[in-house]
Amino acid sequence: MENSKKISPRNKVKLMPKVVVLRWGHRPRRDARLTSHVVLTARALGASGVILSDIKDEKIKESVEKVIKNWGGPLFFEMGKPWKNVIKEWKRKGGIVVHLTAYGENIQTSDVLERIKESGKDILVIVGSQKVPSEFFSEQVSDFNVAIGNQPHSECASLAVFLDRLFGGKELEKEFENAKVRIIPQKRGKKIAKIC
Amino acid sequence: MENSKKISPRNKVKLMPKVVVLRWGHRPRRDARLTSHVVLTARALGASGVILSDIKDEKIKESVEKVIKNWGGPLFFEMGKPWKNVIKEWKRKGGIVVHLTAYGENIQTSDVLERIKESGKDILVIVGSQKVPSEFFSEQVSDFNVAIGNQPHSECASLAVFLDRLFGGKELEKEFENAKVRIIPQKRGKKIAKIC
To answer: B102 contacts in A (CB within 8 Å)?
Structure first.
């Protein structure tokens, strides 16, 4: 009987998996803005953190810190760790790995998202930039290969739709902590509240 | 009685609005890759076309044409037309304008998407790059200002979530015409079919 009690919205949020995004293949010059967009998308759409693997880029780090300082967090950001170590550690802690790729199971036409949700585990989402190593598709790395449609498009777009569907839209209601500014949604114009 | 008959999935697709994306503020050097991602996202997530306003960028055009040649269409791509003319023409033809902005009505916490859908009209989606002119928020331009969450993130991410929610995911099942290649979704690895 205890288990059949209603889950309040607050509890529901707590039951959602923790999601961390692994950005692989970042090239500081070429990918600067796209990687920034990936990090901002991860933050705004409910991920807990982003790991920029295999490389350090102080400019990205600075821009992330600036956003968190103004718009709030929490969001952790790590960089430089080799991707194999990130995967190994994540799996050791009991998490699963989702690789977003146009070649994977279509999130709309397959039951892949249900299977991911049913696992009830925390999720590391791999988002590539350049052509990814073929190992990413193997059982040693990915538990699921997920396509946001089987067409070429954008890692930002894929990450956004994946998170939106995973969290059922609830991520867009999230209030961030220690923000200095907050947008007050308007039908027209801009309204920003400064938080003292 | 005629009206109460079941709508087949095929008919349902036909009842969906036509969506065209207006990319504003493109700076060829700085925004090249982001604008490409916006166009690819528009194509892969069900838009009929993209207008790059106020500027011509042959490189973007070439890359769009290459994608269509290999992966199929249709997708129209226009560039150089002043944004005011695009809006005017769109409205004259009876369409509505949706401006995606972090300052707008939150797609999750408001009923803005329902109101857009209820209009039953074709939609021009404005996606900015730089800071947009304040006119974009006015009744002369936008019928709706929509926020994919009221946090700063990415125009690619915003466009993707907006289209995914507007089309209820059906856009990811779409088959493209005259494609030379097509991905066959796989749990692991890559499989591409060449279409003769």
So the answer is: 183
